[in-house]
């Protein structure tokens, strides 16, 4: 059950289909969508319910596949209220080293590398070729975009968004709901709810959250 039939949802649908080991381990027979736009054309599987209309069945396993972190966290609250049961998706071609823990509902794309003693919060997105160094801690509903790097002992708060190609230096902290722009290099702490961009990454004045 994929909640969210937008671009991220269609990506995850294809990724699950390309992960036969995951499909076999989870005993997945069918993949369907839950989305408030029930008449989306061109989907690879049907939309079977709106989000508010979703009633979990005994054999359902759920991934929330909404790309934007704050929206994803808000929808997860609605799913929690009706007792949804989540799986954790790690693509067959991802690498997760021993000692790391990945929370329920998290999604790990192919070619991602999660080093040792990493903690990934619930409902996080770790996209293709993202790298998490040793002892990194990601909060809940974080997005690490394609080819982004969090080096050793980085801390990233809940609902933060790290864009494509961004690099977080060792021991840096990114606050909750912060955003780091594509290709940025973060050398010092990013406060919560702040957008930073550039090399080195600096706050962007006037950017609406």
H/I helix tally: 3
In the CATH hierarchy, the architecture of the largest domain is 3 Solenoid
Mean pLDDT: 94
CATH class of the largest domain: Mainly Beta
Topology overview:
Elements: E1 2-3, H1 7-17, H2 20-26, E2 33-34, E3 47-49, E4 63-64, H3 69-81, E5 89-90, E6 95-96, E7 101-102, E8 107-108, E9 113-114, E10 119-120, E11 125-126, E12 131-132, E13 137-138, E14 143-144, E15 149-150, E16 155-156, E17 161-162, E18 167-168, E19 173-174, E20 179-180, E21 185-186, E22 195-197, E23 202-203
What do you see in this structure?
The chain is α/β, with parallel strands linked by helices and 209 residues long. It has two domains: 2-81; 90-199, Hexapeptide repeat proteins (UDP N-Acetylglucosamine Acyltransferase, domain 1, 3 Solenoid). It has three helices and 23 strands. It has helices at residues 7-17, 20-26, 69-81; strands spanning 2-3, 33-34, 47-49, 63-64, 89-90, 95-96, 101-102, 107-108, 113-114, 119-120, 125-126, 131-132, 137-138, 143-144, 149-150, 155-156, 161-162, 167-168, 173-174, 179-180, 185-186, 195-197, 202-203. The longest helix has 13 residues, at 69-81. The model has no long low-confidence stretch (mean pLDDT 94).
Brief write-up:
The chain is α/β, with parallel strands linked by helices and 209 residues long.
């Amino acid at each position: 059950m994929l909640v969210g039939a937008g671009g991220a949802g269609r990506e995850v649908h294809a990724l699950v289909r390309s992960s036969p080991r995951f499909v076999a381990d989870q005993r997945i027979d069918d993949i369907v969508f839950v989305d408030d736009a029930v008449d989306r054309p061109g989907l690879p599987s049907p939309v079977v319910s709106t989000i508010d209309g979703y009633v979990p069945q005994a054999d359902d396993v759920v991934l929330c596949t909404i790309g934007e972190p704050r929206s994803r966290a808000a929808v997860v609250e609605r799913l929690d209220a009706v007792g949804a049961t989540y799986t954790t998706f790690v693509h067959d071609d991802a690498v997760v080293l021993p000692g790391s823990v990945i929370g329920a509902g998290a999604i790990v794309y192919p070619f991602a590398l999660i080093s040792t003693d990493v903690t990934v919060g619930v409902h996080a997105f770790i996209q293709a070729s993202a790298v998490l160094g040793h002892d990194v801690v990601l909060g809940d509903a974080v997005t690490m975009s394609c080819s982004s790097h969090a080096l050793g002992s980085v801390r990233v708060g809940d609902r933060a968004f790290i864009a494509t190609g961004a690099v977080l230096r060792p021991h840096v902290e990114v606050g909750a709901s912060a955003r780091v722009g594509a290709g940025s290099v973060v050398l010092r702490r990013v406060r919560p709810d702040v957008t930073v961009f550039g090399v080195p990454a600096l706050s962007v004045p006037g950017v609406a959250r």
